[in-house]
Amino acid sequence: MKQHTMTSISKFLLLLLCSYLCLVAHAADHRTHKVLSVGSLKSAATCSEPKATPPSTSGGITVPLHHRHGPCSPVPSNKMPASLEERLQRDQLRAAYIKRKFSGAKGGDVEQSDAATVPTTLGTSLSTLEYVITVGIGSPAVTQTMSMDTGSDVSWVQCKPCSQCHSEVDSLFDPSASSTYSPFSCSSAACVQLSQSQQGNGCSSSQCQYIVSYVDGSSTTGTYSSDTLTLGSNAIKGFQFGCSQSESGGFSDQTDGLMGLGGDAQSLVSQTAGTFGKAFSYCLPPTPGSSGFLTLGAASRSGFVKTPMLRSTQIPTYYGVLLEAIRVGGQQLNIPTSVFSAGSVMDSGTVITRLPPTAYSALSSAFKAGMKKYPPAQPSGILDTCFDFSGQSSVSIPSVALVFSGGAVVNLDFNGIMLELDNWCLAFAANSDDSSLGFIGNVQQRTFEVLYDVGGGAVGFRAGAC
Questions:
Q1: C-beta of residue 134 within 8 angstroms of C-beta of residue 74
Q2: Which range marks the domain in which residue 453 is found?
Q3: What are the start-end ranges of the H helices in 179-264?
Q4: Among 153, 216, 347, 434, the one annotated catalytic
Q5: 1 pLDDT higher than 50
Q6: Is 149 a catalytic residue?
Q7: Collapsed DSSP state (helix, strand, coil) of residue 5
């Protein structure tokens, strides 16, 4: 009887040990590989139930965020959007423009680190902005669907009367119908500040005029104004924005305007700092068929891994970070830290993350080594590490993690590692040289709540937020 009991206990302990080892192996495999069924990789034709899980914020505001070309978007898809190849070509042109601007910039103007330099001029291409939010402007509030951009400061919407405007999903904002609308005078502090930011455009009938020009050749101009901005159930009085009455260039996406989330004085973040603190966060969904969110007032929350935020003293719009290492399949690549010393801009408007060529070459080689069971495929534009998944019911790819200064490790989602074009490709590209400024693009940011704690000088990442 005693021997039988001991045998049973031994079997039980052995079972527990096996279960533990299986769990450990599974956890290790999760760190080193991402496994998904091929069917789950396809974008849904219908909007899925929102999975977004913004934490409760004391005194904050959270609004839904959607991919503008997806089934969740409030912008109708009356015509086919540009293909991913075309969008990546525009993304490349934008990066080339930024690189030209950066080539003439001098180092040493970054407040928190001498190791990274943000260029004096970045510019933005509207054609790469992919995420939209819905707000209300005026009293009574009129619904406006606006592109979100961390690389812009001046927000604007199309207004009546408009001499040259593109078609949009909502009605043009009519200033005369709002009881709280007020144009700024040319002598106002807001107008002087706008001119100092080189976005003033003189006066018209004693009213302050703004102009914003974009890298893709488009521009918008009109009256710089204030009115009530409604985000969810929250009203923000005296919000400063451009009332666009004329535009030129390639506005064709049916959005009503742009919401600037940059770091300069005109941005939504700066304007609401007194109420919500100078911090915001967003979560970009994994696919166009799901939803994310944008939150103002996010600085006091926990659960983020953080890295110091780098800022330019000359151009305060942009938010920089310092990448220090890359891990593939759980193994850190042999890349000298000095390779990343030019720094990177965190940007919601750039699609693809751009790395120093030394770093990209190491990443590509390590990724290919972990993908030997899948046939290689022809490059697609700027993406040159591609694979053929046809005939596969599920795929297993090496994990990729970005390691930032301060030790923040960001283990990317599957949808932040690969993009589907003709085949599936590694969603990174190389800069022309190691001294060029890098970018952390919106593909790599997917599913993370990305925190921009401007007041606290930090960028944070919270995994699995949407």
A1: yes
A2: 31-45+295-463
A3: 189-196
A4: 347
A5: no
A6: yes
A7: helix
How many whole angstroms separate alpha carbon 175 and alpha carbon 247?
18
Q: Does 299 lie in the same domain as 266?
A: no
Report the candidate in 71, 462, 144 with the shortest Cα–Cα distance to residue 291. Answer: 71
Hey, what are 87's tokens? 């969008």
Q: Are residues 454 and 351 in the same domain?
A: yes
Same domain, 426 and 312: yes
CB 232 within 8 A of CB 247: no
**Tens digit of each residue's pLDDT (9 = 90 or more) over 322-344:** 999 999 999 999 999 999 999 99
Catalytic residue among 91, 149, 153, 434: 149
Task: Name the helix (H) or strand (E) containing 114.
Answer: none
Q: What is the pLDDT of residues 157-186, one digit of tens each?
A: 999 887 777 666 778 899 999 999 999 999
H or E stretch covering 220: strand 219-231
Cβ(367)–Cβ(400) under 8 Å?
A: yes
Average pLDDT over residues 247-269: 82
The DSSP symbol for 225 reads E
Contact by Cβ (8 Å): 279, 303: no
- Global pTM reads 0.86
- pLDDT-derived band at 297 (thresholds 50, 70, 90) equals confident
Mark whether 347 is an active-site residue: yes
Count CB-CB contacts under 10 A for residue 290: 25
